[in-house]
Amino acid sequence: MSYEVTAIKKRPQNFDQIVGQEFIVSALKNSVEQERIAHAYLFSGPRGVGKTSAARILAKALNCEQGLTTEPCGKCTSCIEIVEGRSFDVIEIDGASHTSVNDVREIRDEVLFAPTNFRYKVYIIDEVHMLSNSAFNALLKTIEEPPPHVVFIFATTEIHKVPATIRSRCQQFNFRLISLTDIKTKIQEVAKELNIRSDNESLVWIAKEATGSLRDAYTLFDQIISFSGNEIQISKIQEKLGIVGVEEISKLIRLLAEGNINQVLKVTDGILNKGISEEQFVIGLAEYFRNLLFIKHGITKESFLGCSFESFSKEIIDSFSIEQIEKALDLLLHLYRNFRFSLNQKFELELLLSRLGSLEKLITPSEILNTIQTLKQKLQTKTLKTVPEESETVQAANRSHIVVPQDILKNIIDTIGKKKLTLASSLKKCTLCKIVENDLMFFFQEKDAFSAEFVMGEKTILSQIASQITGNKMGIKVEILKENQTNASAADEEENIIKKVFKGTVIKGD
Fold first, then answer.
1. Which of 239, 315, 411, 464 has its Cβ near the most Cβ atoms within 10 Å?
2. Nearest-angstrom CA–CA distance, 206 and 209
3. Coil, strand, or helix at residue 124?
4. 440 with 477, same domain?
5. What are the phi and psi torsion angles at 37 (to 5°)?
6. Residue 25 and residue 214: Cα distance in Å, rounded?
7. Of 207, 241, 275, at which residue does a domain stop?
8. pLDDT tens-place string over residues 460-489
9. Which of 330, 361, 392 is the last residue of a domain?
């Protein structure tokens, strides 16, 4: 018997063997059991997920010699002819090579004749989106009101290219990508049947590379068997297919975390000399940082990571923050997008690795803002605590001025607002507040002279509240500033705050 590839040998022969499409299987079974057969079905979804297989199984279920059944026997003449593709009543058409109106006219003429041997005449048109607009239009009437013995089953990977007029005349079923776990399980079953030993990492890698397509997984499995023999090992896969292993990338990332760029570049050169392309190397790095990001967010499932959680050491996980990992991913993806415009991909890669070595020094804008806010809070707290002590220092320093933090003025306004709302409103118009020796001075602009006079009339109560807040006995003074004095005082206060926060001096230009 001639060799048969795994994808064909393991093609589903009944509804229960279809992997990862439980809803569609259930709906089709119910249709058959209740004898509610639609005249047209539209199966859409990615490649290798069971669309054509489901169409053939449905054709067998409709034409099995046992009658309408959800479990076609697979042994009768009808089932065998459908499987072997030699039935006159189940016609499979490749939409890519039958795109013209004339091809559709032939179908339209043929559907008028009753099935030769079967119960239903079934037309399976694969890649139906490849039909021309004229061909689609020629199909409209036929699929809307076909003879009762005809069933159309369309399959496509690009549902958006199928006209709405066609979609509205069909029962639509959208096939999903198959999960990594299901693909791994099926590959494991095939390996066991063939007496081929395989490690878990190899099976996970095959399932991950299949990207949701079981047919792709079977094809990759056959390729790996061709050079692995009876034992599949991840190390041999990496060596033969030019793939960067998790162990090599882990070593590289650990060196990056340490900032050892010298060794990073040497290890990278060794990896590239094995025949691994720069693009594949960047893909491997990006996948590793993506997995680190998932782990940082608490996701450790193998189906998400594409490898076992144990492959990532705690040392590496703790070496980077989420922001640093996101920045590394952004740089890697940007480099990958720009590779096609690069003069030398290796130079670009080495430059990126040098930059990644400085990830630990990365400061995000939010961290800068938080640091400034913390410094300002510390400065305000320190000033508030030292106000009583500075009063004595002021006397020794010949009546030098100390700026009162705005929190003190706010506390005074909040306290007074509970008793005298009008007085609190007048204080809110205060432009500047200072302590001069044991006097608390309020400065108002000329336009707020009325508020200043009102505050002067309430000096007694203000003195009591100010004394409670500052811890010293305070007098109250009110002054009205000219416009130029107001601007100068505000500028001086802002300048003092800037000096204290950034611990520097202000350099004024001409």
1. 411
2. 5
3. strand
4. yes
5. -90, 120
6. 17
7. 241
8. 888 888 788 777 787 888 888 776 555 555
9. 361
In this predicted structure, the answer to whether residue 446 has a pLDDT above a threshold of 60 is yes
Which domain range does residue 80 map to?
A: 6-174
How high is the pLDDT of residue 107? 83
Nearest Cα to 151, choosing from 42, 30, 16?
42
Does one domain contain both 137 and 42? yes
Kindly state the helix (H) or strand (E) to which residue 322 belongs, with its residue range.
helix 322-338
Please state the separation of Cα 394 from the chain's center in Å. Answer: 59
435 found inside a domain: yes
Task: Kindly give the interhelix angle for 261-272 and 278-296, rounded to the nearest 10 degrees.
Answer: 130
The number of beta carbons lying within 10 Å of the beta carbon of residue 244 is 22
Kindly report the pTM of this predicted structure: 0.64
Q: Are residues 84 and 190 part of one domain? A: no
| Structure letter (DSSP) for residue 176 | P
- Nearest of 87, 7, 83 to residue 50 by alpha carbon: 7
> Is 345 in the same domain as 422?
no
CATH number at residue 404: 3.30.300.180
Q: Could you give the residue ranges of the DSSP H alpha helices within 397-502?
A: 406-417, 421-427, 449-456, 459-470, 483-502
Report yes or no: 355 and 331 within 8 Å, Cβ to Cβ: yes
Among candidate residues 94, 167, 180, the one with its CA nearest the CA of residue 136 = 167
In this structure, are 411 and 453 located in the same domain?
yes
Q: How many domains does the chain have?
A: 4
Residue 472: how many CB atoms within 10 A of its CB?
16
Q: In this predicted model, what pLDDT tens digit does every residue of 122-166 receive, in sequence order?
A: 999 998 998 888 888 888 888 888 888 899 999 999 999 999 988
Are residues 263 and 223 part of one domain?
no
